[in-house]
Amino acid sequence: MVSSNALGDFLRARRARVQPSDAGLPAGTGLRRTPGLRREELAALSGVSIDYYIRLEQGKELNPSASVLDALATALRLGGDEHAHLYALANHAARRTSQARHTADRTVPSGTRLLLENLRPCPAYLLSPIGDILAANPEGVALYAGLDGWPEERRNTVRYVFLHPAALTLLADWDASALGCVANLRGVLADDPRSPGLADLVAELTAGSAEFAGLWGRYDVRRRRSARKTFRHPVVGELTLGYEVLRLSEPGRRVTVYQAAPGSRDHERLTRLAREP
């Protein structure tokens, strides 16, 4: 579920993943009851008092300085996306940012629909911040086997990965796709905790997928970027495609485009996607 103390939850989860040896601390003797770093160890590494850190983790301290956040990020060994995520959570806790920038508008401009059509035969679709497929060209629908069997309002890329029975077979590296979906959704939460549909989607997937619940609790954060993905498609066979993520002027919306080099086997299979029954 979406927590009211997202900053504290994030700090606890990431603290549990850093071993004392990772931070240059002696392991000590005896059994450690706390996975990862203890609160006092993280406080010392970050240069803050234990009382201050406890208040921060409990959601009672809502205005940490940039120097404190940077020190915590270093001690927790956060990457670039995770460091930015920490700042976003702190800004929301201090109410320094808007709590609801996006609306639930599903209207798709005619220019965006034309763009999707002109990208054919490359599969392409328009996504909302939480992964709802607002529009797609025929290849975009056909690439995700079985997606056309869902009503349009249910079509969501994260929901597909975790709840559609075809996903495990279609996605050659399902684990990487699943982790990427959840890590990106964590970023959406930091950008806009009240993003329309976010709380309902997280609740649905937490209840319906143990894999999602486990990954959601890890608090990984990663923004969608260009990469490659291999599909084992039931109609056209295996194909490996690069994909580009195009950010639009509408807040949070993006177009994802899959492509292959002209003349390649993968490109030839792309052209068959929308022609096959």
Overall description:
The structure is a single chain. The protein has a five-stranded antiparallel beta sheet with strand order 2-1-5-4-3. It has helices spanning 6-15, 39-46, 50-57, 66-75, 80-93, 110-118, 138-143, 157-163, 167-170, 174-191, 198-208, 210-216, 265-273, and strands at 124-127, 133-136, 227-233, 237-247, 254-259. The protein is an alpha+beta fold and 277 residues long. The model has no long low-confidence stretch (mean pLDDT 88). The chain starts with 5 loop residues before the first helix and ends with a helix. The longest helix is centred in the middle third of the chain and has 18 residues, at 174-191. It has two domains: 6-95, lambda repressor-like DNA-binding domains (434 Repressor (Amino-terminal Domain)), CATH 1.10.260; 110-275, Beta-Lactamase (2-Layer Sandwich). The chain is elongated, with a radius of gyration of 21 Å. InterPro entries: Cro/C1-type_HTH, Lambda_DNA-bd_dom_sf, MLTR_LBD.
Please specify the SSE layout and strand pairing:
Blueprint: H1 6-15, H2 39-46, H3 50-57, H4 66-75, H5 80-93, H6 110-118, E1 124-127, E2 133-136, H7 138-143, H8 157-163, H9 167-170, H10 174-191, H11 198-208, H12 210-216, E3 227-233, E4 237-247, E5 254-259, H13 265-273
Antiparallel strand pairs: 1-2, 1-5, 3-4, 4-5
Helix pairs in contact: 2-3, 2-4, 4-5, 5-10, 8-10, 10-12, 11-12
Organism: Actinomadura syzygii
GO molecular function: DNA binding
Protein name: Helix-turn-helix transcriptional regulator
